[in-house]
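This section describes the prediction task in plain terms. A model, or a person checking by hand, is given the sequence of a single protein chain and must write out its three-dimensional structure as a string of tokens. No templates, partner chains or ligands are provided. The sample shown here is typical of the held-out split.
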Amino acid sequence: MSSVSVPFYQKHHKHYDRDYRSSQLHSTMQDYRLQEKRNITTHSHGSEHVSGFTHTKDEKRKHSEGYIGAESHFVQKNTTEEHNVERIASHSSRKVAIRESAERISLNKKIHETHEFHKRLKEDSMLRLPEFIIKPRSHTVWEKQNVKLHCTVSGWPEPRVTWYKNNVPINIYTDPGKYIIESKYGLHSLEINNCNFDDTAQYRASAMNVKGELSAFASIVVKRFKAELDDFSFHLGRFALPSYDFFPGDSHVKFDVHIVEKFSVSFGKEGETMSLGCTVIVHPNLKRFQPEIQWWRDGVQLHPSKWAQMHFSGECATLTLTHLNKEDEGLYTMRVLTKSGYELHSAYVFVRDSEAEVAGAPTAPLDVFCLDANKDYVIVSWKQPAVDGGSPILGYFVDRCEVGTSHWVQCNDTPVKFARLPVTGLVEGRSYIFRVRAVNNVGISRPSRVSDPVAALDPSDRDRLKGVPLAPWTGQIIVTEEEPAEGIVPGQPTELTVTEATKNYVVLSWKPPGQRGHEGIMYYVEKCVAGTEDWQRVNPEIPVKSPRFALFDLAEGKSYRFRVRSTNSAGIGEPSEATEFTEVTDKLDVPKAPGHVVPSRNTDTSMVVSWEESKDTKELVGYYIEGSISGSGKWDPCNNKPVKGKRFICQGLPTGESYKFRVRAVNAAGLSAFSQESEALEVMAALGGGVPAAAPTPPCSITVLESVHDSMVLGWKQPRFHGGSDITGYFVDYREIINNKPGKWNEAHIKAISERAYRINDLKENMIYQFQVRAANMAGVGLPSSPSDKFKCEEWTIAVPGPPHDLMHTEVRKNSVVLTWKAPVYTGRNEVTGYYADIRETDANEEQWSSINEKATSKRFIKVQGLKEGVSYVFRVRAVNMAGVGKPSDLTEPITAETSPGTKEMVVDVDDDGVISLIFECTDMAGGSKFIWSKNYEELIDSSRVTVETKGGKTRLIFNDPGKDDLGVYSCAVTDTDGVSSSYAIDEAELLRLLELSHEHKFPVVPLKSELAVELLDKGQVRFWLEAEHLSPNAQCKFVFNDKEIKNDDKYKIKVDHKTGLVEMIMEKLEDIDEGTFTVQLQDGKASNQSTLVLIGDVFKNLQKEAEFQRGEWLRKQGPHFVEYLEWEVTSECNVLLKCKVANIKKETSIIWYKDDREIMFDEKHDFKDGVCTLLVQQFSKKDAGVYEIVLKDDRGRDSSVLRLLEKAFSDLITEVCRMAALTATEVKVQSTEHGIRLYSFVSYYLEDLKIIWHHNDTKLASTDRVKSGVTGEQIWLQINEPTQKDQGKYTLELFDGKEGHKKSVELSGTVFDEAFAEFQRLKQAAIAEKNRARVTGGLPDVVTIQERKSLNLTCNVWGDPVPAVSWLKNEKELIGDDHLILKFESGKFASFTVTDVRTTDSGKYSILVKNKYGTETGDFTLMIVQASGEICMAMYVADAAGNVQESLTKVTTKTTNGENTDKDLIKPQVEELIAIEETPDCTIFPGSEEKTMSKLTTNKEVVGEMNNQEEHKQPL
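The expected answer:
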């Protein structure tokens, strides 16, 4: 650690060399010095310094509207910076000053003209009512949470927002810290901290300006529930400070706390009331900001309850224990918490047992609580009392009481010795409390303090209720179930295990079956004795509901197997898998007795008792300590509540009496036997003014480190107990062993030695020796150690080194430990080059040693990582040289990998002045405990490099001049504690980080979120801005243009918002003289920064051009204008929609559409809904090409937008229309026709520009007579006439929109083709049959009315190939022609029906039947006969070729009864029409007819009706 030259770390701090720093840090420091020089020069030569800090309220209000930015700028070379400083300091020439004056006058003139122009603008057009863009939203929160309401408001002038609670304005000063109201750039927020039930209310945000007021409402509901205590274990030295948002905003206020009139060690008795109090003095005394008082017992924070009441009046803090019980015994700590830190005071409270109701009965148990709770049972646990009343405790009775009643029920008939008991027979959903009583041969103790209430619920239900607490006013538990499913027998339970087994009971646990239906299930438990297969049901009558069960009345010592069955209304399921055999006996053994009890003096009324822990103890609860006056034979308990650890201070002892002590351990199985009694020790104040001190215990593990012919070097381990003070030295004795007979002990030295290694000289060569060592402290010399092994004094000649010695361990954690050792005294033939550390578990064999480090380490310490928590290890170290690895050192004592409660780690700190220090805290210090600092686990040699400051339980190691010589591991240990220690490693990377952090704190820089930037505002104004992360209220800002400071005047508007860190400067207009460099300089206390923006050349010209454009745009937007100009869009229906977005519209604003300068007329006035104007062009085609224009105008101005749909623009639009049309194409479908197979697809809209290509098996199809394609309407088809097998394959329809093709495919093969082809054949045959079948094509009327004795002739057309056979029917009977009825069929087309002399018997229904091989058809008509009048005529109904019925009358010459002829005119017979049953079928086209279409002809009904009308006009009958 020493050097010949003056070491680097001894140089003075101001002048030390900084070369060890990184180049980047070195450059930063140079930049800072140059910056300081420039600032000094600027202040000395500049006569017009104007601060950017404003003082008026109006200016502060304006600053809240700004933004900030920054751009880091550092000087790279010293010569360049010096030159710039000189240029800044130089004076301008007289000509330059005159020119600048002229330019300033011209600029002022332009600014004045601009200002006058703005005055002439109509202010009314800019004023707007407040409007909530985003309204506040309602919230529901839990107590203690924070909630924040947001809203966004627009309007001009900017509205002022006020927040109300239930229509009462919120004042943030009445309750500082409760409400935080912020308003930034139109975003307003109200934050409510630490919500309570009173914050449930309706909140209103009111926005107001000169145009009016608008409000928005939101509700906040704060839900209250009784939450359980946080699972936070407080130990001395470990705590969490609360939030201090309610303290004053000035972070420099420091509170000094003094605790006076402290409470001391107190003694009470069960049933009494005790108060603990202290006087707390806080300076400064701010009434509104009182400190927080916390009370803790044994590391657990106390809260107000019926057992503990707390009060703080401003000075006096008290804790009142209303009814003492043994549970109240422990170490009480009062903590006073302020913003500046905390102060505490602790003292122990002892609670004695109250007198037993029966003399000799035991005292009451304590700490009754529930380990597990289910639907119908609870496991109750407790701790055994310290006093058994003089006779052993036989067991315990557990009582239960339902909450809300006072009736106690004993749960067990016989006492249980195990401190846990499953209580069954509970009612699901009800809450219970429990108590325990102890019993011995004399009687029963008083009952314990009752447990906390516990509900008999399923654990999942309890967790759900805990996780989602309900609001106090609801009190509802909503259970949603599905419809019950009946008839499902539950499956097998799973994972059946024995969770606990004693000689009194066995507890089973399992998981419900997966198959369970929707109804609840219960369980039957079965048992089977080992050696049999006889399963017996334990609960045959009442099944259990919980998936846990406790079995009693089992035969002690026997082994059982268990299984479980599920049951419901559907039946009993299969049994689960059986457990392994479980023996009915106590699995938890009573702990072994502690060992080696050592008392030591503390004060004149107390003593410190230490002991060795009980070995191999499971579920240890703690220890009971008893003390007895020497010779009295009476033992009194020193504590009535078990304590953990290996050390306890027994209080209230009479001064001058000699006391001895004994200890016993306790767990759930019972109390151990007492330890051996300690030596008697008189009660008196320890040496050193109350510092606990006694003679140390003997050292151990004496070994030989080196041996020569006349001397030997011994090493040993320090005592396990120091006696309450530091070890001041050791004394070594030796004796000769001659013929295995030990001689007299001789002192090896007179003066005590401080090291744990000593060379004894003047020994006899080849003589055998034994050694013993005694330790000494300020209390005296302790007992000697046991004699060592026998060692022979002879010259060691081995080549390898001897064993390292003084192997120690420190910093024990749950996964690591640090080992330290000293170099071997005997190094062998060569120097020691390194060390190996070995590890094994304590219970492992010697063969299981493994090396911790693969390569030898040159250091004499090592940190062992990767340990398993709770596992005990032993370690050893071996030295190595060139000859090999030497003998291992002695083993360490067993070390358990665990982190002690309250352990704190060392932390590094860099304060505001850049001072680097290491901090370590310990709150478990004894009266004489000290902090011991070391570097690399060796004593700090050079104390000039560091300074140690210690105050109370906190120590700080400060680096005076941090550098490379300070690299290493720094550790701190606390004496007279149970190994409290911690370390911190500083390597090169960590040192560099700390130095950079120190430099930042020493020479701070104002941190910037963004560099200096420029942007254009709506009116063409230019805004320069930067943003700092934070600015204090005293921060200052300067804008500099071309090395001249800019003032806040008509041209430049400078704003600084210290709250948000925004700095901005707004220029009304960017002129040519504004080309140059802009710089922002920030100064905030010690911190400073600057950012520069260069606007020259093209950058400046482009910005100026853009500003002019923005100004023109602003003027345009004063009237109706387009926000988005005219553009086209193709809809999904393939229509073209021309649209644009407009703004600043009023009712008088008109809109006109033009195409090619011709106005497009509309019937309705356009509706400016959502500010969008549209023009829909349906079925867009080439005729719609042209120039479209839309014009907006009113009294404020005019704006237009033009869209040219010509050439390429039109082509792009047509392509898009084609693309959209192609996208609407349906899948290709297959249809069979009488001519072949047709493939087709539909589109929403078809236009010629959409190219259609058909492919067959990837081959383009050409149009032929057999295969044709085309478009009919929106159907695109491909017709395959007379298909063959070659036509099978994949057909693809490609729709090409001009850029890309869109394909639709169909597979016409296999079954698809076969079915289509078969359908084609069927349709083809059906068409032939339909074409050639026999049919009546027309000519028959529906009804014929004729006079009697007249003649009737009907003729109709018949078609069929081959020529059909014709027959006539009357009333469904075939007619045979004769003279009266003449039937004819001529030319294979015309069939006639003639009745020569109509009689009444001829009335009826007549039918014509035509038939050939393709089909049959009939034609019907009805013949009605009326009485004759006038001359006899023949009525003829003849059908022409088209099937139309033509009526004619033929005169018939008849003779009258008197034989005379009548010469009267013929009278047309009356034809009456009856309601027809069928319509005469329409005419069809005859095969071979040249006409393709034929108009619909007049039906027979119409002909007959017309005849009747004519007859009525001529001569009514």
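For orientation: The longest helix spans residues 94-120.
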